[in-house]
């Protein structure tokens, strides 16, 4: 039994601060998910994707993000990207589809998904990725912050990188329903109640300014909505005449109270099931 006080302290610190984890074999997969407690990168054998050709009505965002990602995969400079806007319009689907398109070009690129609640651990993840010879898209889906949320401070480690700088082999893509990553009413509240109104929200609002690319996604119109469904039908071999599709799809959207790519896919899933087609 250890009696030296310094040895006991050292042993206690070792228990509290576990040794750094070893990087996984990145050849095992092209996609990984970051988990904590304990820290680990878990490979994803098969990514849940939608083919890029089926993502309609977002051509500008698609082309811009694809070009940025190709540059990065080729070892050139590239920007962090914020995909913001309407729910269900393919923001996260586009990130995964672009990754697949880059792999299809024969370029090695890994994607690592990070949950918003795990942002405080991002410095440990970046240390792990920095030491690898691979190139990574670090992806955070549905990123936003509430009034008293301090996680946004950890995000700066990804966007700015502190004294070390962001790792050259990592680029950060995030999706959000909010352009400034926090609700507008909270921005206005801090602006009106702060001692120095211009500085009260600057730290949080400026987070979005740190993304080199802002890609906006807007609600689709009815023609785009129907075209999405027709595209799904053609891709999966589901036969339905235009009149029936239009009537059913419009009724489906009415029950949901909105039109989006997600609603289009949900209607198509129901249709395919009724037609005996597995998707």
UniProtKB/TrEMBL annotation:
Domain of life: Bacteria
Gene3D superfamilies (alphabetical): P-loop containing nucleotide triphosphate hydrolases
A Pfam family matched in the record: DUF815
Identification of the protein by name: AAA+ ATPase domain-containing protein
Lineage, highest ranks first: Bacteria, Pseudomonadati, Pseudomonadota, Alphaproteobacteria, Rhodobacterales
């Amino acid at each position: 039994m250890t009696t030296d006080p310094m040895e006991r302290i050292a042993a206690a610190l070792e228990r509290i601060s576990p040794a750094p984890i070893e990087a996984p074999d990145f050849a095992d997969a092209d996609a990984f998910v970051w988990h904590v407690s304990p820290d680990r990168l878990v490979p994803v054998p098969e990514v849940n994707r939608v083919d890029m050709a089926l993502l309609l009505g977002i051509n500008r965002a698609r082309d811009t993000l694809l070009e940025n990602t190709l540059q990065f995969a080729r070892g050139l400079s590239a920007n962090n990207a914020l995909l913001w806007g309407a729910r269900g319009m393919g923001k996260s689907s586009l990130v995964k589809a672009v990754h697949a398109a880059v792999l299809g070009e024969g370029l090695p690129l890994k994607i690592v998904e990070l949950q918003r609640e795990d942002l405080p651990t991002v410095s440990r993840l970046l240390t792990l990725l920095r030491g690898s010879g691979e190139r990574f898209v670090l992806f955070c889906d549905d990123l936003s912050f509430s009034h008293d949320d301090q996680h946004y401070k950890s995000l700066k480690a990804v966007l700015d990188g502190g004294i070390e700088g962001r790792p050259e082999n990592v680029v950060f893509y995030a999706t959000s329903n909010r352009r400034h990553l926090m609700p507008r009413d909270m921005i206005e509240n801090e602006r009106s109640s702060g001692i120095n109104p211009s500085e009260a929200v600057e730290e949080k609002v400026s987070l979005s300014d740190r993304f080199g690319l802002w890609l906006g996604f807007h609600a689709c119109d009815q023609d785009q909505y129907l075209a999405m469904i027709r595209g799904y039908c053609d891709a999966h071999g589901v036969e339905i005449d235009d009149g029936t599709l239009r009537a059913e799809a419009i009724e489906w959207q009415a029950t949901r109270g909105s039109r989006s790519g997600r609603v289009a896919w949900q209607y198509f899933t129901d249709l395919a099931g009724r037609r005996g087609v597995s998707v």
